[in-house]
Amino acid sequence: MEDPATAFLAGGHGPDAGVPAHSLRHAPGPYFGSYGGRWMPESLIAALDELEDTFEKAKADPEFLAEVAELNKNYSGRPSLLTEAKRFSEHAGGARIFLKREDLNHTGSHKINNVLGQALLARRMGKTRIIAETGAGQHGVASATAAALLGMECVVYMGAEDCRRQSLNVARMQLLGATVVPVTNGSQTLKDAINDALRDWVANVGNTHYLLGTAAGAHPFPAMVRFFHEVIGEEARGQILDQIGRLPDAVCACIGGGSNAIGIFHGFLDDPSVKIYGFEAGGDGVETGRHAATITLGLPGVLHGARSYLMQDDDGQTVESHSISAGLDYPGVGPEHSYLHDVGRVTYEPITDAEAMDAFKLLSQTEGIIPAIESSHALAGAIKVGRRLTESVATPSDIVIIVNLSGRGDKDVETAAEWFGMLDENGHVKGTMLSTRSAKGATPAGSVDERTADENAEDATHE
Amino acid sequence: MSEAHARTAGSQSAGSKSAAAIDRAKAAGRKALIAYLPAGFPDKQASIDAALAVARNGADIIEIGIPYSDPVMDGAVIQAATTQALANGFRVADVFDIVAAVTAETDAAVLVMTYWNPVLRMGVDEFSRRLAEAGGAGLITPDLIPDEAAEWFAASDKYGLDRVFLVAPSSSPERVAMTVATTRGFVYAVSIMGVTGARAAVANTAQAVVAAAHAAGAERVCVGLGVSRPEHVREIAAYADGVIVGTALVAALRDGGVPAVGALAKELSTGFVPAAATPSSTTGASRQ
Fold first, then answer.
1. CA of B270 to nearest chain A CA: how many angstroms apart?
2. Most CB atoms closer than 10 Å: which of A342, B51, B184, B205?
3. CB atoms closer than 10 angstroms to residue A77
4. Residue B198: predicted pLDDT
5. Cβ-nearest to B118 among A46, A185, A316
């Protein structure tokens, strides 16, 4: 069989070439070139077969598709907006930057697209319990949300380090009725949460669906998760055509496992004039070894069920990744991205923590939109791409870039406050502890008598 | 039953070191005891000593596990042991020294149990060549299914290594047949839907898994996961060709060192003595 992407490249499609003869869209899996597959324990193969069968039937079932569409519209709030970021654009060489506003979805990120689809599939399979892994907490919150909506039990595995970094999301999941299990194995981040979720799944596969949150893992997960996120790219493509009458010059997204990216990329894979960029977490800098730039510096290997690029040492042991962004702190990447990298359709580059946080602040202060730190990697990348692409053009505003703003930054306020030196030595936001009044409901130190006296004093001030 | 299985035995088990070990046990009127121990736990030399101790106390096959960063099929005890081995500086190439040291000193067949990425990283052919050179019998691959094993088929044929694949309670009849057909040495029957770890009782799913593999033509089927006591060994020996013990041995090694792991192997092998006789009177008699 002819490799579609090789044919695509061999055709020499320049910016003005027509639609390629071989589509890169709707790749069905299990393999994307030499990537993907099922590197999984035999115990789970039957569940993967059942899931694949259920998914393939659902995909062709108008009733299922209508159910997904109805939830997307009336629950998630789709279509998400495409917002031109005019003041932010000035910092990107003058290229026009448009933001695909996945941050405006219910639960605050793109993750809801996938969880609603998979939760509906779980219900079709008669499963009553869903389990999920989460890094930043976005997927865990989305999973807990879908479970609440469909009346299912939900258990979320989350690295203990991520629980610390994203404690508010832990509380959100609990408020939604989910059980959060902090994972203290290994690096205590996303990969270890996936390990524990897989262990749970092996033991409870009869009533449990593993609601994997990214376009990675064993077949059918990469193709299935992409399917539920394709709506991002389809909407964005239609919206940009509506707003400016043509396709963009570039599309940018951040890459952890790569689900938001594959969702928006999919809409443009067969448009040869559209350059596509994926931005990985460069952490402290790829030269420091403390990063999560899997494609940039990794080697093909197998982890969590798929063959893909992987951060590994000479022995094939997974190397711990590092990123300020919990959602990108993963040493693997979805297999379709490995393929798109190898065939040259998508360009993958690292963005450091510092570059991402600069972009985080810039978008907040130029557009009034606080982005997720994950999405800030895409914004930082778009600034670079914008400067590059406008270098050789007479009118910078002729260059149009869409950035997938995959999530909102509310969950990251504490991390950002720490990064920008907004906290005092006690971890409080500077200037917020000046009140001389005792807090209502607080238990002041001291004897009962003193407390009573204090309360009386406070009461007196109210009178 | 044995006549039906003889058809496949010729093609898939000729020259198999683990099949030969199982057959030796059978000739001695019992079933095979298969002992799992992690390489490099608590350190390299102690892992060699522990393997020799279990071999000298009744184990017919030793599984040496390669510590791996993401052991998704392992429970807490084995995870903790392999994490410690990695922290102590275990390198994958150490496993060949361990295998060579054990095969030099005992008649036990020595298999390596490994997640697949360390093998891929070294190169499947290179890994296989070095394993064969060290005297290893083959590989048990918990996260490699035959569907993805083309490279391993080629290398295991080239170097005459066993390829032990797993069948599970959830495996469809088609998958059991495919797995049995591609396995060499013995079929690893996963007793329960779960990860490694000692359990109070052997799951009642185990016997059905073994029966399915036998029915699909497997001559040698051994049961693992959750096996920790002599009474488990006795129960499984009634229907399977071998019994695999891991977590209980690792816990013994952790808590009591090499003497404890040898003593547990000896105790486990009393499970092969017919239940009708008392252990104290028949152990001596059956060995004479």
1. 30
2. B51
3. 14
4. 82
5. A316
Chain B contact present for A53, CB below 8 A: no
**Above pLDDT 90, what percent of chain A?**
82
CB contact under 8 A, B72 and A39: no
3-class SS string, chain A: CCCHHHHHHHCCCCCCCCCCCCCCCCCCCCEECCEEEEECCHHHHHHHHHHHHHHHHHHCCHHHHHHHHHHHHHHHCCCCCEEECHHHHCCCCCCEEEEEEHHHCCCCECHHHHHHHHHHHHHHCCCCEEEEEECCCHHHHHHHHHHHHHCCEEEEEEEHHHHHHCHHHHHHHHHCCCEEEEECCCCCCHHHHHHHHHHHHHHHCCCEEECCCCCCCCCCHHHHHHHHHHHHHHHHHHHHHHHHCCCCCEEEEEECCCHHHHHHHHCCCCCCCCEEEEEEEEEEEHHHCEEECHHHHCEEEEECEEEEEECECCCCCECCCCCCCHHHCCCECCHHHHHHHHCCCEEEEEEEHHHHHHHHHHHHHHHCCCECHHHHHHHHHHHHHHHHHHCCCCCHHHCEEEEEECEECHHHHHHHHHHCCCECCCCCECCCCCCCCCCCCCCCCCCHHHHHHHHHHHHHHHC
Topology (CATH level 3) of domain B2-270: TIM Barrel (3.20.20)
- Out of B86, B116, B193, name the one closest to residue A202 (CB): B193
Alpha carbons A296 and B94: distance in angstroms, whole number = 30
Domain A41-404 has CATH 3.40.50.1100: yes
Q: Is A202 in contact with B68 (Cβ distance < 8 A)?
A: no
Q: Where does the pLDDT of residue A185 fall: very low under 50, low under 70, confident under 90, or very high at 90 and above?
A: confident
Reported confidence tier of residue A188, pLDDT bands at 50, 70, 90: confident
Q: What are the residue ranges spanned by the domains of chain B? A: 2-270
Whether residue B8 has pLDDT greater than 80: no
Cβ contacts of A436 within 8 Å, gap of 6 or more? none
**Residues sharing a CB contact under 8 Å with residue B67, sequence separation 6 or more, in sequence order:** B38, B39, B40, B41, B81, B82, B83, B85, B86, B90
Q: Which two tokens stand for residue B196?
A: 């490694």
| C-beta separation of A348 from A337 below 8 A | yes
The string of pLDDT tens digits covering residues A424-434 is: 998 899 999 99
- Identify the band that residue A164 occupies on the pLDDT scale cut at 50, 70 and 90: confident
Tell me the chain A residues in contact with residue B147 when contact means C-beta distances shorter than 8 Å.
37-38
- C-alpha distance from A76 to closest chain B C-alpha (Å): 34
Least confident interval from A366-375, B229-238, B266-275 = B266-275
Average pLDDT over chain B reads: 91
CB < 8 Å to B170, chain A: 42-47, 205
Task: Check: CB of residue B61 under 8 Å from CB of residue B18.
Answer: yes
Catalytic residue among A89, A102, A109, A111: A111
Cβ contacts of A44 on chain B, cutoff 8 Å: 170
Residue B63 annotated in active site: yes
Report which of A411, A253, A421 is spatially closest to residue A347, judged by C-alpha positions: A253
